[in-house]
Specification:
The structure is a single chain. This protein is mostly helical. 78% of the residues lie in helices and 3% in strands. A two-stranded antiparallel ribbon has the order 1-2. A hairpin with a 5-residue loop joins strand 1 and strand 2. Helix 3 runs antiparallel to helix 5 and helix 5 runs antiparallel to helix 6 (111-156). It is elongated. The two termini are 50 Å apart. This is Membrane spanning 4-domains A7.
């Protein structure tokens, strides 16, 4: 019995008379470390920052495709409006800065960094809102272009045979450009909405941290 107790580590000492003295082990509070508000804040801020940086990369990549692609005269005005606004690049850069600040603020956990993250997330929310409006307007304009392409198809049947093949080529180019750009803008719109939600949530999170009096949440890092 004594050997079994020693093997389990319960027996800490014994007296000269052979009386075993047992000491209780202190309970391990592993949950305290897991439930530490500072650790939770760090993890949450890191996830938010990574998502915002990914949104930046995807939106800027799609913007580069918009710049480099050749377009027909039907869709050029729509694409020019989006590119001249600078949203695919200026907005994406804003998202990258916000995401980086979010990750740093989660690690530092000081009020100046929290205030910086709050400000940058508010700006990102505004930028995403503007981008959402531009992309929605662009999708509506592309829908009009698609209808115009369909109306031109009816006109083709009345053309002479010599002009038919040239006109059908323009129709196919118009339809292909409209469909491909619609898909591209839809993807960009999805990540813009995601960025808007992340920035709005992060703004709420950092606002709470700035106005928090809990030293566990706003430690010196």
């Amino acid at each position: 019995m004594l050997s079994q107790l020693k093997t389990k580590g319960i027996c800490d000492s014994s007296t000269p008379n052979g009386i075993i003295v047992l000491k209780r082990e202190k309970p391990r509070h592993g949950y305290e470390k897991e439930g530490n508000p500072q650790n939770n804040l760090r993890k949450e801020a890191t996830v938010l920052g990574i998502i915002q940086i990914l949104c930046c990369l995807l939106i800027s990549s799609l913007g580069a495709i918009l710049v480099s692609g050749p377009y027909s005269s039907h869709v050029k005005p729509t694409i020019s409006t989006i590119l001249m606004s600078g949203y695919p690049f200026v907005g994406a850069l804003c998202f990258a800065i916000t995401g980086s600040l979010c990750i740093i603020s989660g690690k530092k956990s000081t009020k100046p960094f929290a205030m910086s993250s709050l400000t940058s997330n508010v700006v990102s929310s505004l930028a995403a809102g503007v981008g959402l409006f531009l992309l929605a307007d662009g999708l509506v304009a592309l829908g009009t272009v698609s209808q115009r392409c369909d109306s031109e198809r009816e006109y083709l049947s009345s053309l002479p045979y010599s002009m038919y093949y040239y006109a059908i080529y323009e129709f196919k180019e118009c339809l292909l450009a409209s469909v491909s750009l619609t898909g591209l803008l839809v993807v960009m719109l999805i990540f813009t909405v995601l960025e808007l939600l992340m920035a709005a949530y992060a703004s709420t999170l950092w606002w709470k941290q700035v106005h928090s009096n809990n030293p566990g949440c706003m430690g010196a890092g």
